[in-house]
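Sequence only, no structure available. Ideas?
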Amino acid sequence: MKLKRKYKIVKGILIINVLLIISCTNKTFDSSEQLLEYIKQPDNGYLYTKTVNGVDFSLLYKPTDVLVHQELTGEVTTTKIDSLRSKYKEYMYFTLSMSKNNQELLTNVAGDKQKFGAMVNQLAFGMEQKVHLYTPKKDTIVMADYIYPRMYGMSGATTMLLVYPREEKVTKEEFVTLTIEDLGFYTGEVKFKIPTKMMNNEPKLKF
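Reply:
I predicted one. Tokens follow.
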């Protein structure tokens, strides 16, 4: 009886280990639409949302193959895919969206010329001073770049692409924290805790 019980315990542990291995394996998708649908499901760990004082924040981590697919043109070859993957995997890409009343942040201050001008300047040239990424040891990851396309009120949110180097001090930690300082809407500092496992086991595309 003891041997049977011991066998069941060992068998249970083996099953759990196999499930853990499977869960950590990179998922592969046949199309970019499937991949985008997957990362936009909050339960999968790539999309984070928060509402503070009426301002809606959305942070989406974009896997390497999303960027690769966007740049692929003409004949698709293994060499071209490998080259683009090598280029983009050196960085981490986040799409940050912010809105109030289902409108861009600028639309909400359009009636105040001074605030409007200050916010245009902040969004276009100063977000590296407002958005911060750091490890549990408080090591700061310096922003490599960010892209803020002006939508001139044609979008329901202020959206920008944040780019950070994929440094070892990030990937070896259990999580990193991204913070957004108050942009003038009395939100205080908004924080997102991001597990690194989803960055270390990115879903991929079948090209």
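Confidence is low (pLDDT under 50) at residues 10-24.
Hope that gets you unstuck.
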